[in-house]
From TrEMBL:
A Pfam family per the record: CBS
Entry keyword annotation includes Endoplasmic reticulum: no
Topology of the protein relative to the lipid bilayer: Multi-pass membrane protein
PANTHER family reported for this sequence: CHLORIDE CHANNEL PROTEIN CLC FAMILY MEMBER, H(+)_CL(-) EXCHANGE TRANSPORTER 7
Naturally occurring in which organism (per UniProt): Elliptochloris bilobata
Lineage: Eukaryota, Viridiplantae, Chlorophyta, core chlorophytes, Trebouxiophyceae
Protein name, as recorded: CBS domain-containing protein
Annotated keywords: CBS domain, Chloride, Ion transport, Membrane, Repeat, Transmembrane, Transmembrane helix, Transport
Superkingdom field: Eukaryota
Length: 772
């Protein structure tokens, strides 16, 4: 944006202003292709008649079935998470075991390098091919798109069955390939598809695939009650929260994700359903993991291990002192600045280069990019292991002191990986770089937030990880994440940001220890895992601008519940610094995609500044395309095919409505989808499913000469806002109610009465019903 003071005078300033205006108009033209969701109550005559005929038994049965679907969503996500983790872990373990075997047999770099890098490239090709050839909407984590959906923007194909299967397959191979941009975050998108699909108990994708010969949906009497956009949004929220819960074993973080990302207040009932679903999902995952790992002793297996009392010795490593609180704020501020720099580079330089050299329509280039990134990551990681210095493997007592077991992390990792890999080192020695680079990313995260020298004789000695290894890992992961995120596969960003933050936190802890020693501090040294957890939360918040969600993801995934206050301090500092330097990663990508995202004016000073200075009349459209209450089918077809409007006012003053700035009497509004359903179902002219072209093309000359009454299907009570109201008021209404449109009324509209809060109570409604 060009500052206002630069737009006042001067040839250069005027030129800059014209360029800014031109870019803004171009963005608005691109935004016009996006569709909006409408989460407002459908208050038509037909809908009211249906609701009035429902009895108490029907309403109670629908409520019970809603809870069943919520529970089923959570259990389904637990099962899917277990299957995905097991498949990805098996493929990952195969790659590491083959490389280890070849290292032991040959002692050279060539053979294990070819196998390790070759399998990574093969996995990367599979992860990308299913996306670029079958479902481009499955690329990325889906978190940005879900953020837009809950804000009221409809993304075509986002919640389709095809996207669901492609997302699952791609996420498995992304994890197996070892790409830095992990495959856990896409589970939020997968969960949203599961929740949205179960809510309607149907699939449009399957119906279209069979060309209408089989309608993939259950009838209403069998439970298909929840097909409104509001019910679909609520169940999508339930599924998305369950996806986050099983991805990071963080049920409370799933609830807060929906609370933070949804523009509307979904209500207490929805949040309670979300909590039930996330808890059921995590419990199902725990049970399945216990069944897989415990074998015959399944019934004695211990669930929810984080909260067991015998974890107290491990949790003792999470020690915090009062003088460290400013240090936590400093760590958060520094990592917030680093995170903002990452967002700026990835969303500007890397995105621009990708758009220039790798067109979104070039499938083979997009797949080749993912293959190259997977091979490059594997090659760099294994080369660093080959060049790693060796150190004597510590005796068992020393290992127990350095890494007390078990640190109660909730992150599951199938397969055994040595904490002291020998690799190319002589017997009795281990690879210092291999501790970080020759292990899956999720396991590395567990190690970096759960190690410390806790015994008295070990306090003055070196800790588990070599400082040079930590520095290299932080730099290499940051560089590869910057290059990888945004490529054509199901790539996420949560786990790598937690990794980078945890490693950076360990490095900061060493600095704090050195500063404390220089100042003459004689107490116990600063705890490494504390700073690892604090750094992880700060980096996650700085990249994604999650607040409470970042805090809970960090403490739930690591099991560091006692560190919630230090994590809050670091997250607040990171957010404060990062907001002054750049936007969040998902906000940046929504901006690049020209998504009409409506920001909260209370949290976005620029939005509040502009909206407070404009009124609704300044931005409204006049001269609207309206329809009469009784209209010929031919005129309906002309309106649908000749315009792209999603909503049409219904009025008897059609000619007056078409005049710019003229006032006209509104009977109601009717949506494009309602008109198409009337032509498709009410008249019954098209036997199978189809879009607008199929419906309109099947109409005969006799059909076009018929007339249709719009009044039973129009919204008789559309929401209005006065033209003199501030733009902030309209923005708050749009965000809070999930609207698609608002009618603008004159400055001095007529009124027939007024209602208060008391008039909306149950007691008053019962009294009025008794008097009728």
């Amino acid at each position: 944006m060009v500052p206002l003071r630069r737009l006042q005078t001067g040839i250069f300033d005027v030129s800059s202003r014209h360029q800014t205006v031109g870019r803004t108009r171009k963005r608005l033209e691109q935004m016009s292709h996006a569709e909006s969701c409408d989460f407002a109550l459908k208050d038509t005559d037909v809908e009211r008649e249906v609701r009035m005929r429902r009895g108490e038994r029907h309403i109670g049965r629908a409520g019970t079935w809603r809870w069943v679907l919520v529970l089923l969503t959570g259990l389904t996500m637990g099962l899917l998470s277990f299957a995905l983790n097991l498949a990805a872990s098996s493929l990952t373990l195969l790659r590491f075991r083959l490389a280890t075997t070849l290292i032991q047999e040959t002692g050279t770099l060539a053979a294990p390098f070819c196998v390790f890098v070759g399998l990574a490239a093969l996995y990367g090709a599979a992860a990308s091919a299913v996306v670029v050839f079958f479902a481009p909407q499955a690329a990325g984590s889906g978190l940005a798109e879900m953020r837009a959906y809950f804000n009221g923007v409809h993304v075509s194909g986002l919640l389709s069955m095809k996207t669901f299967f492609v997302k699952l397959v791609s996420a498995v191979f992304v994890l197996a390939a070892g790409l830095v941009a992990e495959g856990e975050s896409p589970f939020v998108h997968v969960g949203a598809i599961v929740g949205g699909g179960l809510s309607s108990l149907g699939s449009r994708s399957l119906t279209r695939a069979t060309k209408g010969r089989w309608k993939a949906k259950l009838p209403r009497w069998a439970g298909g009650w929840f097909r409104s956009e509001v019910e679909h949004r609520d169940m999508t929220a339930v599924g998305a929260a369950s996806g986050l819960a099983v991805a990071f074993v963080a049920p409370l973080a799933g609830v807060l994700l929906i609370a933070e990302q949804s523009a509307a207040n979904l209500g207490e009932a929805v949040y309670w359903r979300v909590l039930l679903a996330t808890s059921a999902a995590v419990l199902a995952l725990n049970v399945l993991v216990a069944a897989y790992t415990a074998g015959a002793s399944f019934w004695d297996a211990r669930l929810l291990y984080t909260f067991m009392p015998d974890n107290a010795p491990a949790l003792a490593a999470y020690r915090v002192r009062l003088w460290e609180l400013p240090a936590f704020a400093g760590v958060g501020a520094l990592l917030g600045a680093v995170s903002a720099a990452f967002v700026a580079v990835n969303a500007n330089l890397i995105y621009s280069a990708r758009q220039r050299w790798i067109s979104p329509t070039s499938r083979f280039r997009r797949m080749s990019e993912v293959v190259f990134l997977a091979a490059l990551t594997a090659a760099v990681w294994l080369s660093l292991c080959y060049a790693s210095p060796c150190a004597p493997t510590p005796p068992p007592r020393r290992q127990a002191a350095l890494a007390p077991a078990p640190i109660p992390s909730s992150l599951y990792m199938f397969g055994e990986y040595s904490l002291y890999p020998q690799l190319w080192c002589p017997p009795g020695y281990y690879s210092q770089y291999g501790q970080l680079f020759f292990a899956p990313s999720r396991l590395t995260l567990r190690r970096t937030v759960g190690v410390d020298a806790v015994s008295a004789e070990d306090r003055a000695s070196d800790t588990l990880f070599n400082l040079r290894a930590l520095s290299l890992y932080a730099m290499a992961t940051t560089v590869m994440l910057t290059l990888t995120y945004g490529a054509g596969a199901a790539l996420g960003v949560v786990t790598p940001t937690l990794q980078v933050g945890a490693v950076a936190g360990l490095l900061m802890c060493h600095l704090v220890r050195a500063a404390a020693a220089a100042a003459g501090y004689a107490g116990a040294p600063a705890s490494l895992p504390v700073y690892g957890v604090v750094g992880a939360g700060a980096t996650l918040s700085g990249c994604l601008r999650y607040k409470a969600t970042a805090v809970l993801i960090t403490v739930e995934a690591t099991g560091a519940w006692s560190l919630i206050v230090p994590v809050v301090i670091s997250v607040f500092a990171a957010e404060l610094v990062a907001d002054r330097l750049s936007s969040g990663l998902f906000d940046a990508y929504l901006h690049l995609a020209c998504t009409p995202f409506l920001a909260d004016p209370g949290a976005a000073p620029g939005v509040a500044y502009a909206c407070d200075r404009l009124s609704v009349a300044d931005v409204m459209a006049t001269g609207v395309h309206a329809l009469p209450p009784v209209i010929a089918v031919a005129e309906v077809v002309h309106a649908l095919s000749g315009t792209t409007f999603s909503t049409f006012p219904v009025t008897e003053e059609v000619d007056l409505a078409a005049r710019a700035g003229a006032e006209f009497h509104v009977l109601g509004i009717i949506e494009r989808q309602t008109l198409l359903k009337m032509l498709l179902q009410r008249i019954g002219l098209v036997p199978g499913p189809g879009g607008q072209a199929a419906i309109l093309g099947a109409l005969s000359a006799g059909d076009l000469a018929a007339w249709v009454d719009l009044r039973p299907f129009m919204f008789r009570s559309p929401l209005l806002v006065q033209g003199g109201a501030s733009l902030t008021r309209a923005l708050v209404l749009f965000r809070g109610l999930g609207l698609r449109h608002l009618l603008v009324a004159p400055q001095d509209p007529r009124s027939v009465g007024i209602i208060t809060r008391k008039d909306l109570t149950l007691e008053n409604a019962q009294l009025v019903l008794a008097q009728q």
